[in-house]
Amino acid sequence: MPVWISPSTGSHADVLARNGFRGHAGGGFTRVDVFDDGEIVATFVPLTGRDEILYEVIVDEADLRPVA
């Protein structure tokens, strides 16, 4: 029995952006299959063709301070 999950269809975060944060247009879905034997398989299905950068924030390492 498949289950479709959609965290965001409007934008997604680039978790591999160096020294900051970056957001792109687009998103995706996750299909979760639960089988009778208990096996669970999750597959991410991206929405393609929308690689436009919506925002980018560069963080200077000198500005990073530990939170007390």
Set down the secondary structure blueprint.
Layout: E1 2-8, E2 11-13, E3 20-25, E4 28-34, E5 40-46, E6 53-58
Antiparallel strand pairs: 1-4, 2-3, 3-6, 4-5
Could you explain how this protein is built, in words?
This protein has strands at 2-8, 11-13, 20-25, 28-34, 40-46, 53-58. With 68 residues, it is mostly beta strands. Helices cover 0% and strands 53% of the residues. The protein has one domain. A hairpin with a 6-residue loop joins strand 2 and strand 3 (20-25). The protein contains no helices and 6 strands. The model has no long low-confidence stretch (mean pLDDT 75).
Features of this protein?
68 residues; mainly beta; three-stranded antiparallel sheet; 0% helix; elongated
Entry summary:
The protein has one domain (2-62). 0% of the residues lie in helices and 53% in strands. It contains no helices and 6 strands.
Strand content: over 45%
Total helical segments:
0
SS-based class: mainly beta
Number of separate structural domains? 1
| Major beta-sheet overview | 3 strands, antiparallel
The value of Rg in angstroms is 17 Å
